């Protein structure tokens, strides 16, 4: 879906978007009812006075969004909303899936001012160099595409990452305690499947990463929220929740937390591991922005304080190195690792070897450090620009020391959903707070990512957004 | 693990294997008990009179297999068998997982005569050309690694596959009805997660693909087996099972079936779709060897007979084009497709764009057809050689018209498990029938793959195998 944003122009831009939202509006107000046959591409194009290709693409988009369906060759029909939830979706909790669809929809609609996706502007990523590494990989391993990787991950890459984790963080993990996954998303998914059974309790920060909520709900978990603030957690609350709810695990994002950008301070980290050990609760530290710091380096990962196998560490690199490679690493102790490897073998038989080898060679090069230094500067400038423009808004936020997002409080009683609706008219997108809340409230908050749009777009977009208040 | 086979020499070959199996034997007979501290690498190497590196690697291997564990830096310990099943594995049924571990173990141990994995000899795959396509991909899409793919799959690839399916099989599927997955394994996994809830009934062929059994069991399904023979199914049995057990779906492999190589004849295909429609049972046609035919082309996929959205078609290409790319496609109708896309977004956020683009350009080239023609000839020769050598065995099988395996009946009362034990002494591997049986019986059968070993290895290996009778 990120690709669409890059090539938004291909869809015809604003006109296309108007056609799509116009059609959605007609369905919403019942002018077009479920199972109604819709006008042909030709007829609708004539009616709206636009190119047939635009209407065709609008139909494709609506089909993709599940708003219309196609019956053989007889044409387009209105999809009955909600039917999807009932028909054969198995044990899926609709809450999570509906929310996820909302998120996907927001991501998928093209926007000139894209503050919704926490992805980095491809222009800031080291594209040029990668083709060199790819060439090198084919020279070194001519049969790289004829071979499956080891299910647990390429050994050379796991050895390199093991050395890196020792050197960088003094995390003593052997290559056998590392699993390569296709991005951090898959790591959460595998952990969820191995660890969570229906009616298990899972602790999560509030707010948190929306797709993780969906995964845990899908597995039938009950979610207990824990507040996170600029100073981390209230450890008494954490202690009480662990004692009272006996959670199976605490899924957390303690370093440049998504969506708030907060980091849990060093002094809390050691104590958290002790609490988790005391209560037999696994800590899952999902860490995908460690290197995106603007001040000093963030505190060490929780894994550094673990001696009893209480912490699972997910380290993602995709976001700020090469989203297209889909490489993350999970580190944990036995016997959990063995279970994860089995789950990985059943889910996809291993992450593609080519991707692992490309990553290995880039990761081991000096270019990575150079890239990260430049990237931090570029992102900090974008963050500063966004904050500068937001100063006129009257909204409040805590300036984050790293990560990709601002977590904005719009003021009591102000609805971010309503703001988004107005913002869409001006081709601005962001994530309403409700999607980041496992309780699905927090409507007066919004997540704005400063990593994708350039400075000019940020200036214009935020000015226009403020006008939507 | 396939990679291991290629580089088996790196592990030290036979000596390494002897050390590993010797150590396993000492654990099996209780000389080394659960939680016992094991001798150091240095000591064991001295005792066995082999290189320390060999012992070190043996420990790594046993650790990997979950037979030993490491406690901080104090050394290696015997892992208590079975403990894994209890400790926090969530809703996992141990049956499936144990079997899968057996399969993994067999695959992972190096063998000079490798008849266990149904993978194609990398020497028969078009490795040389791929680096050209990779270069082309980087020229065409310089930001391919900076971009996420569309969750449903790259649009260009889905359009190309949609045209291909129309042209080749007259399957009328739009790009919106195709989902790109990271190999066929992931396709089964996604379908399983979206469609199957605990206590649902799933029909499967007997024998069938072992990992599919594991996936369905993991989801809590009850399995109803349906026999498959050289002439396909007994449709009365299928009808009765569907009426009686009301299965949610029938997972099938009707074209060059794994492990038997049988194909369900054309006249049964149409009738099967009618039966499935009548009983409201989804048919999942898992098709990963369509192009590996030795006689005429196989009958059209079941999807060709579907008008009501009763058939889901999984088409894998990885196996015979580029296992390392991990590309398969699922085609199905709405609303199922939408659910699969959501599940895909939660599981890994989309298959890497680079892999899709490389596949796209190779798939669209003339080289694919040339490769397939050569590959069919090479595999048929290997199959013929294996059958020629097996003639002396007294075992029986039906010669398959395609695929990668022979399904051998060793005779009533003969145990393939016992045969495998003897075969391992001669560095021969194959899959005992029990692993292919959802009922975990069929011990007097064995699956022998002729796709990996070369002709010389097949001749020697089969001769040696026959001596193990």
Account of the 3D structure:
Two copies of one chain form a homodimer. Chain A is an alpha/beta fold and 469 residues long. Chain A contains 18 helices and 14 strands. The first copy, chain A, has helices at 2-6, 13-28, 41-48, 52-64, 83-86, 94-108, 127-140, 155-169, 183-195, 210-218, 235-245, 266-279, 318-321, 336-347, 353-363, 367-390, 416-425, 455-467, and strands at residues 68-71, 75-78, 113-114, 178-181, 201-206, 222-227, 249-252, 282-287, 311-316, 328-331, 405-409, 428-429, 431-432, 445-449. In chain A, the strands form four sheets. In chain A, strands 4-10-9-8-7-5-6 form a seven-stranded mixed β-sheet, with helices on both faces. In chain A, helix 3 (41-48) crosses helix 4 (52-64), helix 6 (94-108) runs antiparallel to helix 10 (210-218) and helix 7 packs across helix 15 (353-363). Chain A is globular, with a radius of gyration of 23 Å. Chain A starts with a helix and ends with a helix. Mean pLDDT of chain A is 87; it is low at 1-12 and 82-99. Chains A and B meet through helix 1, helix 4, helix 6, helix 7 and helix 9 of A and helix 1, helix 4, helix 6, helix 7 and helix 9 of B.
